[in-house]
């Protein structure tokens, strides 16, 4: 799998050849084709294995801001130049073969969403945020945007950018959750 990731990062999805992956892995194309029916399946399996190395869990640090900073830092560290090239290559190739990109997105969601929810659940329990559905939706939109931005720039986010993302975007947005209807109607009744 490491050979597939290496070749994918170097040449992109379209130019990746099973023969080159086999050569680098010290194997043969028929051996790879016995395990994977085609390039798409090989790349999908390689990406799943590569992404399984990324840890998204954040311990309870006592505040939403601290946990968001730790989470964004861990994502930024996980977005190595090689992984960013892979993500960019998959975006470019997704018009011809969307399966690897869809698989990447689904796998990232399956790993990252539970970690985000844990952070947000703790923040709600501490009284730092209100509406969890609104918070879940916001994070579901912001996290992929950060990854896409890093992939397009082909460089991870620096510390100042991550702090700005947390302080100027995530914290205010998460704290601005909609007021419950029952409270809003009480205020309007006294006008």
Could you walk me through the main structural features you see in this protein, from its secondary elements to its overall organization?
Residues 17-36 bind DNA. InterPro entries: DNA-bd_HTH_TetR-type_CS, Homeodomain-like_sf, HTH-type_TetR-like_transc_reg, HTH_TetR, Tet_transcr_reg_TetR-rel_C_sf, TetR_C. It comes from Sphingomonas prati. GO terms for molecular function: DNA-binding transcription factor activity; transcription cis-regulatory region binding. Helix 1 (2-15) crosses helix 4. It is built from 10 helices and no strands. With 191 residues, it is mostly helical. The chain has 2 domains: 1-53, Arc Repressor Mutant, subunit A (Orthogonal Bundle), CATH 1.10.10.60; 54-178, Tetracycline Repressor, domain 2. It has helices spanning 2-15, 18-25, 29-35, 39-51, 64-78, 81-93, 99-125, 132-153, 159-175, 181-189. The radius of gyration is 20 Å and the shape is elongated. The longest helix is centred in the middle third of the chain and has 27 residues, at 99-125.
Please outline what is shown here.
GO terms for molecular function: DNA-binding transcription factor activity; transcription cis-regulatory region binding. Keywords: DNA-binding, Transcription, Transcription regulation. With 191 residues, the chain is mainly α.
| Silhouette | elongated
Structural class by SSE content:
mainly alpha
Q: Main β-sheet, in a few words?
A: none
What's the architecture of the largest domain, going by CATH?
Orthogonal Bundle
User: Beta fraction of the residues?
Assistant: under 5%
- CATH level 4 superfamily of the largest domain: Tetracycline Repressor, domain 2
**CATH T-level fold name of the largest domain:** Tetracycline Repressor, domain 2
Contiguous uncertain segments of 5+ residues: 179-191
CATH classification class of the largest domain: Mainly Alpha
Distance between the termini: 66 Å
Mean of all residue-level pLDDT scores: 81
What is the ordering of alpha helices and beta strands? Answer: HHHHHHHHHH
Q: What percent of residues adopt helix (DSSP H or I)? A: over 70%
How many structural domains does the protein architecture include? 2
Per DSSP E runs of 2 or more residues, the count of β-strands stands at: 0
Number of distinct helices: 10
From the alpha-carbon coordinates, what is the Rg to the nearest angstrom?
Answer: 20 Å
């Amino acid at each position: 799998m490491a050979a597939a990731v290496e070749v994918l990062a170097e040449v992109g999805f379209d130019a990746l050849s099973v023969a080159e992956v086999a050569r680098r892995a010290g194997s043969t194309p028929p051996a790879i084709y016995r395990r994977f029916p085609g390039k798409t399946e090989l790349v999908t399996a390689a990406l799943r294995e590569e992404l399984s190395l990324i840890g998204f869990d954040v311990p309870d640090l006592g505040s939403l801001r601290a946990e968001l900073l730790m989470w964004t830092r861990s994502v930024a560290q996980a977005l190595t130049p090689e992984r960013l090239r892979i993500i960019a290559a998959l975006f470019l190739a997704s018009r011809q073969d969307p399966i690897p990109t869809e698989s990447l997105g689904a796998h990232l969601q399956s790993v990252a969403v539970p970690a985000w929810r844990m952070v947000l659940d703790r923040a709600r329990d501490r009284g730092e945020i209100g509406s969890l559905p609104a918070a879940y939706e916001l994070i579901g939109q912001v996290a992929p945007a950060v990854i896409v931005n890093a992939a397009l720039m082909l460089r991870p986010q620096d510390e100042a950018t991550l702090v700005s993302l947390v302080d100027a975007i995530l914290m205010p947005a998460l704290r601005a959750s909609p007021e419950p209807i029952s409270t809003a109607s009480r205020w309007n009744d006294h006008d």
